[in-house]
Predict the structure.
Amino acid sequence: MTTQPDQAHTTVRHRPSITRTLGDLGEGEAWVYQVRCTCAMPVFESHYRFKADDRYRHHLESEATVDPSERCRDPKHHKVAGWDVCALCADQLPLF
Ligand SMILES: [Zn+2]
Ligand SMILES: [Zn+2]
């Protein structure tokens, strides 16, 4: 027997990743870094690792917006990023 919590709304989770593949973006064949996420963000492609890193950071800092009430209230102890949804906190009743 498992009990399913009521899904009042859908939570978008962000698990961005950078992958490297050989490709040609118009400058000849070279490593192509691709940034994609489990959300609906468009795949970002660049020949430059630092641009992929920038995109990755920008996504987490500016675009991966989680409703404040769903963010972890104790990221250090729960070992999740401050911007992320926390399963431990989500199981608790909201404090406000
Ligand atoms: Zn995302
Ligand atoms: Zn938490």
